[in-house]
Amino acid sequence: MKLNSSEKQILELISLGQGLSRKKIAETLHLTQGSITNMTRSLLEEGLIIEGNRISSGLGRKEVMLYSNPNKFTFLGVDIGGHVIRFALATNSLEIIHEGECLMADLATEPDPAEVLMQMMHTFLAQWNISPAQIDAIGIGVTGIIDATQQILLSIPNSPGWEHLELVSIISQRFNCPVYLEEGGRTMAIAEQMLGKANAISDFITVQVGFGIAAGIMINGKLLKGVNNTAGLLGHITADPNGTRCLCGNYGCLENIITFPMLRNDYRKITGKSTIVEAYQQNDKQAIDVCVAAGQALGIALSNVVNLFNPQTIYIGGAMFDQMPILLEETKRTIILRGNRFSTTSLNLDRPTFGLKQGIMGALALAKISHIMAQ
Ligand SMILES: [Zn+2]
Fold first, then answer.
1. 305-328: per-residue pLDDT in tens?
2. Rounded to an integer, what is the distance from CA 226 to the centroid of its chain?
3. 249 CA to middle of ligand 1, Å?
4. Which InterPro entries does the entry mention (predicted)?
């Protein structure tokens, strides 16, 4: 079945919501209730959506809620981060059925990381007795640079072996299903919009800091990509003109100041020890000072982002903000201090909905939304 553009819009809208009535869909898309009734009937017949409970909406009669059919598709998500690669299998409702992970370091010396990644995907599915034929689409999020036209992974700045990999064509051939590839910060923004707190927010930014920095910029409900598909390279903006050389080739990048390995390095330079988290949790002054300096650097960078894009919310994620909370406090304080006061009056600084699973939820959300649009 080939869906028309209005049917795709309806399907996308239902995928974004926690159940929607026909009346609400008609209002949102500015279409008549009659046409919505016809189109939702064909989507029901195709098994793409299901009817749920009748829910009262004020004084009118009860409305039947429509949902994605959870059994229609099965998605495989792959989240390639700076430190960990995560895999997850999910229903069409994006409920995770199985998940697994491996370390990026395990692939560092492999001459063909794409081949090893595919073997890992096969192994992941095989341990749950899932055949590749059961997968309807694969979503891959990667914290790197992607050629949008040719769907090639051009580079992961922190992982030198991952260059010019034709991930989409080789994985789609091997798994015999569509494969969708997107930058990891952007997939996190897609997950936040589809299933998270940004469900009703059109201007927001997701930032994830761990072994690298990833960012997704959603403007007027659309992901910002840029002419070379590199928009959102927050980790590689210059934060210290006298800073050290970054793996991207530039000097003084934000990633060289605030990522977990950099905080550990900074603390080691001062104390000779690499146990910054443990030291912080024992109120070690030098550990706290390192966190304050890093939080200020991130806060300055994000205050510039606030002035440029005027988002409603920035979702700041990463385990180290939980382990060393002053990092987050200093980041937030600096954003408010440095951002333009007219831009920060209603600015909301929040944590991402899915925590450490934001990346893998993003890869799954990418698979789902792209697969709907391809119907
Ligand atoms: Zn850099």
1. 999 999 999 999 999 999 999 999
2. 17
3. 6
4. ATPase_NBD, ROK, WH-like_DNA-bd_sf, WH_DNA-bd_sf
CATH code of domain 74-187+358-373? 3.30.420.40
pLDDT digits (tens, 9 = 90+) for 102-153: 998 888 778 888 899 999 999 999 999 999 999 999 999 999 899 988 788 8
Structure tokens at 361: 């939820």
Cβ count within 10 A of residue 328: 22
In CATH terms, the fold of domain 5-68 is: Arc Repressor Mutant, subunit A (1.10.10)
Q: Do 74-187+358-373 and 5-68 have the same topology in CATH?
A: no
Per-domain residue ranges of the chain? 5-68, 74-187+358-373, 197-352
The rounded Å distance from CA 215 to ligand 1 centre is 14
Residues 237 and 234: their CA atoms lie apart, in Å, by 6
The Å distance, Cα 233 to ligand 1 centre, comes to 9
77 C-alpha vs ligand 1 centroid, how far in Å? 27
Alpha carbon of 155 to ligand 1 centroid (Å): 12
Q: Which amino acid is at 46?
A: E
pLDDT score at 60:
66
Cα(366) to ligand 1 centroid in Å equals: 26
Q: 197-352: what CATH class?
A: alpha beta
CA–centroid distance, residue 208 to ligand 1 (Å)? 16
- What separation in Å is there between the alpha carbon of 118 and the centre of ligand 1? 28
Query: 351 C-alpha to center of ligand 1: Å?
Result: 25
CB 203 within 8 A of CB 219: yes
- CA-CA distance, 375 to 358, in Å (whole number)? 26
Does pLDDT of 61 surpass 80? Answer: no
Report the separation in Å between the CA atom of 235 and the middle of ligand 1, taken as the mean of its atom positions.
Answer: 7
Each residue's pLDDT tens digit, 159-171:
778 888 899 999 9
Strand arrangement, sheet containing 152-155: 145-147, 152-155, 163-165
